[in-house]
Amino acid sequence: MDYTIKTLLTREEVEKRIKELAKEIEKDYCGKDLLVIGLLKGSIMFMSDLIKEMDLPVMIDFMSVSSYSGTTSTGVINVLKDTDISVKDKDVLIVEDIIDTGLTLSHVKKLLEDRGAKSLKICTLLDKPSRRTVEMKGDYVGFEIPDEFVVGYGLDYDQHHRNLPYVGIVVKK
Ligand code: 5GP
Ligand code: MG
Ligand code: MG
């Protein structure tokens, strides 16, 4: 490997924060019929930890979308795997690994709104606010991080390292 991985957030820090987020979400959705939608593949570890800590009878589903393409900042996304459960009239929480430019989530949000979700909120493990090209705010944010390329806890570098139980910065040698 021509790079090393420097720890940014330890496993303990991440796990502690996920428990806090889960309790916040649990409080906000008490008595509601919540559908949690994870965006593949980056959200898998975060989502799995998060929903275990919620004392709510949630429904879960997944979506996979391709990176946006096109020359304008609006671009387009392709849905590679859609949800099985309809979002119509449901309280939906989208779970994402990281918000960077905000483009992916702005598209997904619009799509699910157009499909008639009753409410729509976003939960992200990481947020790089300095990189935004469109306005996008997470409703539940684990950690704000600096403009560095990170891996682990579901996030990949060329499809590797998603299984790291901590979040690290990729440092070129
Ligand atoms: P956005 O559409 O907000 O620019 O980007 C979202 C996607 O880009 C994330 O879901 C993630 O897959 C990828 N991404 C953005 N920043 C990073 C990063 O630092 N590390 C990794 N592994 N992926 C990132
Ligand atoms: Mg992602
Ligand atoms: Mg990726």
TrEMBL record:
Molecular functions (GO terms): glycosyltransferase activity
Predominant cellular place of this UniProt entry's protein: cytoplasm
Entry-linked InterPro entries: HGPRT, Hxn_phspho_trans, PRTase-like, PRTase_dom
Superkingdom of the source species: Bacteria
CC cofactor: Mg(2+)
Biochemical pathway: Purine metabolism; IMP biosynthesis via salvage pathway; IMP from hypoxanthine: step 1/1
Any one Pfam family match given in the protein's UniProt record, by short name: Pribosyltran
Cellular localisation: Cytoplasm
Keyword Transferase: yes
Catalytic reaction(s) noted: GMP + diphosphate = guanine + 5-phospho-alpha-D-ribose 1-diphosphate; IMP + diphosphate = hypoxanthine + 5-phospho-alpha-D-ribose 1-diphosphate
Domain Phosphoribosyltransferase, first and last residues per copy: 6-157
EC number(s) stated in the UniProt entry for this protein: 2.4.2.8
Keyword Transferase among record annotations: yes
Keywords, in A-Z order: Cytoplasm, Glycosyltransferase, Magnesium, Metal-binding, Nucleotide-binding, Purine salvage, Transferase
PANTHER family: HYPOXANTHINE PHOSPHORIBOSYLTRANSFERASE, HYPOXANTHINE-GUANINE PHOSPHORIBOSYLTRANSFERASE
Similarity remark: Belongs to the purine/pyrimidine phosphoribosyltransferase family.
Protein name: Hypoxanthine phosphoribosyltransferase
Species of origin: Fusobacterium mortiferum ATCC 9817
Gene coding for it: hpt
